[in-house]
Amino acid sequence: MLESRDLGLETAEFLCNMADKLGISLIYKASFDKANRSSINGVRGVGIDEAMDIFIEIKARFPCKIVTDIHESHQSKIVAEVVDLIQIPAMLCRQTDLVVSAAKTGLPINIKKGQFMSPTEMRNIVDKARQSGSENVMLCERGTFFGYNNLVSDMRSLPIMSSFGCPVIFDATHSIQKPGAGICESGGERWFAETLSRAAIAVGVAGLFVETHPRPEKALSDGACVIPMHSLEKFVSAMQKLDSASKKIAYQSFSYQQLS
Predict the structure, then answer these.
(1) Nearest 5 degrees, angle CA 166-CA 77-CA 49?
(2) Percentage of the chain with pLDDT > 90?
(3) Rounded to a whole number, what is the distance in angstroms from the first to the last CA of the chain?
(4) Longest alpha-carbon distance in the chain
(5) CA torsion sign, 230 to 27 to 25 to 253?
(6) DSSP 8-state assignment for residue 94
(7) How many angstroms separate the Cα of 56 from the Cα of each of 61, 66, 79?
(8) What is the pLDDT of residues 37-52, one digit of tens each?
(9) Taking 50 as the threshold, does the pLDDT of residue 252 lie above it?
(10) Which of 45, 85, 96, 197 could serve as 67's disulfide partner, Cβ 3.0–4.6 Å?
(11) What is the Cα–Cα distance from 42 to 155, expressed in whole angstroms?
C-alpha cells in the first residue's frame, strides 16, 4: 500500500538499485487504495489523486515501470495516464465492467486469480479482456481459500493458466496471507514465502510478485506477510539463481493441453 510520498520514494529507490545490481527486470507496485479492508477502521492509502502525483515523481526520478490496481471502472482512464500496467485485484477478478475498462485502455493488465476461483475458470476472464481489445494479459496466482482464514497454493494452477497463452506470475507474499485471521486485520506466515516461491519457480513462472517494507512491524497493510526490505536482496538473489538453474535443466516438456 502507498502509505506516503516519503515511503514511496524510499522503496522505489531501494528496489531500483537492487534490480540494477542483480540485473533483473522490475515493475514497481503500490496501491493507492486498499478498498477491501478487513475493518472499516483499516487505513486505505493516500487516494488516487495524490498517488498519481507520487507515481509521476517516482518515474521521473527512477528507472522503473509502475503497476497499480483499480477497484472501480472509472479509475482505469485516470491511472492509464500515468502507470505502465493495470492490475485487477483478486477479489474483483470476475467484475466484468472492471476488466473491460482496464482492457480498453490499451495497457497490459495483470489479473489476480480470485481465492475463490479455480484456475480453469480464469480462461473466461482472459476472454473478457481479449474480447475488449487487450492481448497483453498476465495472470497471477495468489492462493486458494482452504477453510477459514487460510490459503493453499496449488502449483497445478500455474501450467493450467499458462495454457491460456498468458504469462503467469506467482504472488509470493499474498499466498502466505491468513485472510481475516487477526479479526480486524489479516495475518500471515512470511517464512513460507521462500518455500512457495521455490516451488513456483521449479514449475515455471514468468515472474514473482513480492511485497516489502522497510519496517514491517509498522506497515499499515499486510505487515505479517511482507519480506523485510533488508532481507529482500538475499531473497531475490536466491530465487534468481534457482530460476536460472531451473531453466538450464533439459527435459521432455509436455504442455497442459497435451496431457489433459
Answers:
(1) 115
(2) 81
(3) 39
(4) 53
(5) positive
(6) T
(7) 9, 10, 11
(8) 777 877 888 999 999 9
(9) no
(10) 85
(11) 32
